[in-house]
Amino acid sequence: MKTFFSLIAALVVGCSSALAEQPILIRFSHVVAPDTPKGKAAEFFAKRAAELTRGAVKVEVYPNSTLYKDKEEMEALQLGAVQMLAPSLAKLAPLGFKEFELFDLPYIFDNMEMLHRVTDGEIGASLLARLEPKGIKGLAFWDNGFKSFSANRPLRKPADFKGLKIRIQPSKVLESQMRALGAVPMNMAFSDIYQAARTGIIDGAENPHSNFYTQKMYEVQKNITLTAHGYLGYAVITNRRFWDSLPSGTRHLLGQAIREATTYANRIAQEENDTALKKIIETGKTRVYTPTAAERAELKKLMLKTHAEMAPRIGKDIIDAIYKETGFDPARM
């Protein structure tokens, strides 16, 4: 009998030890393909988190909306069904953070250097801190890149956009941008774009080249115009209660993994988009057009009307702070 109880005790101790050694699980959900800048950065983060914590943290990455679509993932994070997301910045506005829509303003950033003055500085830190009352911890900004317009007809001047149904993310700013062009904004999930374009529900879209290529949009869009009119980036976020529950040492190491992943993500974003554009051209299925300086100036002047229209919604103060930080002066247009 003594031997029996000794055996039971040993099994209990062994099971307790095994449970104690179970790694902390982080489910990281996103809606794009694994071979996009965000997809690769998420995998890089998972690898570095495991290495830095020596296996104490396991990050499972779920790409391509395999867990949740655009409209579902934020609620899943707040409920704790997933621990990390990297939603596009426009998706934070429906939670009450309309100031994040400033990143959707067309032509507010002329290049990545201007953008990073904001995301890497005090303005960026202030924006992420505003998420906390909603139970969300902002960890970083990740680049994807500047967007181009695509459609089944050439897009060279404002008149070419008139009446086109163009897919957008949920964003009042993007709705305003499309109306300024005379187009019809079509709000839909990222995962639905290909089918919508194939069946004619939409006529066009706006995407960085990496998204255009990995979603095989070249099969259903005959033209792409390199407008670089808007920025697409992501906020890497986590459930605040989950984050605060982690041991301080683990949080420190995960913070390091995030910083490394951010450096990696922002470095490869331009490389991935350049490579994707070459592959789009190689397919021979989509004509690629680079606007002249005059054509770009005409589009820019028209689309800048969105800045003034959206200032009451986003906040004139924060838009002015962006202008000051980047040196942009819309009055010169």
From TrEMBL:
Keywords: Signal, Transport
GO process annotations (BP): C4-dicarboxylate transport; transmembrane transport
Key word Oxidoreductase present: no
InterPro entries registered for this protein in UniProt: DctP_fam (IPR018389), TRAP_DctP (IPR004682), TRAP_DctP_sf (IPR038404)
Keyword Signal: yes
Gene Ontology CC: outer membrane-bounded periplasmic space
Entries under PROSITE patterns matching the protein: PROKAR_LIPOPROTEIN
Signal sequence range: 1-20
Family listed: Belongs to the bacterial solute-binding protein 7 family.
Listed name of the protein: C4-dicarboxylate-binding protein DctP
Organism: Propionivibrio dicarboxylicus
